[in-house]
Amino acid sequence: xxxxESRPSSGLLPTLGFLTTISIVVGAVIGSGIFKKPxxxxxxxxxxxxxxxVWVLAGVLTLFxxxxxxxxxxxxxxxxxxxxxxxxxxxxFIAYLYGWAVFAxxxxxxxxxxxxxxxxxxxxxxxxxxFAPEVEKSFILYIPYIGNILPLENFGVKLLTIGVIWxxxxxxxxxxxxxxxxxxxxxxxxVAVILTLVFLSFTLGSGSASHFFMDSASPSDxxxxxxxxxxxxxxxxxxDGWNNITYIAGEVRNPQRNIPRALLVGTLIIxxxxxxxxxxxxxxxxxxxxAASELxxxxxxxxxxxxxxxxxxFITAAVMISTFGTSNGTIxxxxxxxxxxxxEKMFFKSIGTVQHQFKTPGNALLLQAIWTTxxxxxxxxxxxxxxxxxxxxxxxxxxxxxxxxxRKKMPDVERPYKVWGYPFIPxxxxxxxxxxxxxxxxxxxxxxxxxxTEIINSLFGLLLVGIGIPLYLYFTYKExxxxx
Length: 484
Hints:
Structural class: mainly alpha
Radius of gyration: 22 Å
Helix content: 55-70%
Largest sheet: 2 strands, antiparallel
């Protein structure tokens, strides 16, 4: 087994500093979720205390995951991130399965869903074409035991989404420094507009602290545990993307020090921002008003004295800025996984090629854009987010278990950072991740059987992951044949 230090150079340039590294962590996480999911969570929970509690719980668990992942990130500072970690932990098959899942579901699904919200909210400023409902439902793809896909649904939004994805792909094709600069700008802008809304809510808003304790007038009849698990799925989507920085470790200066620090600092910043914006929502709007809101941040701004329509436009623009920046960061980071797989002879050889002029994984970026386009056409925002969160948490659990594995397999490798609270912090994270995956699968199947959803999102995600297994057998056979 190669030590981390003996791995061949990727050919990519280490140009990203500590502040940009934090920016990528924060920018990859804060996107559409904080503007989209609070309304759904309010409707599910019906309680401001529970809603804030779920945001804190999801944030703490995300922090536990980030702290656990940071130990491995400090040990193995190679472009490819979690793919390389799984290879060290479990061997080629699990590593490949993760890399394929990143390509087929996790990161491409993130790019598709984040950019989808950018396009959806742009309709505040201009009209996007949409087919009549009967036309949208005239072409349906049925997947046995999983459900229906409607490619023509919300067609104008999907076309704009695809256009933005390809535009950002070209920007990142032209150089990581340019992509990193763009990430810094949009991360600063999105944090600034969120904090501005928080400040104005508590200074200009005619809200009430009583909203923090006022439960819904129409509480759900489902059990509290089921409601919390459902709401956590939305919160986890808002927190997802925290490990994207590990994908581009080979392009970070002093990665053994900067990546663990950026994961810790970035995750704490995100938790703080999410709590502040949810407190602002609840101060201005009671829980039932949040649940009924199509765009809770916009409706919060409309309640601010003297802002009115300008506030709605301002917040809509803020959502677009936020999602645009997050999509850029995800596009930049994710392509490095497939690049690393190809360099390890576990993906198509051409995907591991460094673009000669710009020193970027150009082919990996282009392939990513092609498959993301397919996913955009296949689903809605909720379909994409629910399936990728389910698949992500399977691998988050495996990644945390891998910390225990590496302490056994690689005891003598230097660890610039060791996870705080070991073994309890990783163990808590693992136990919760397993429970969340099981309960999510059960909930998805139950909702489909009850006619509440068109598709079993978790099984759809597993199907896309399973499609990669024949390819693994092909790449393994090809490599064995090459070696003779």
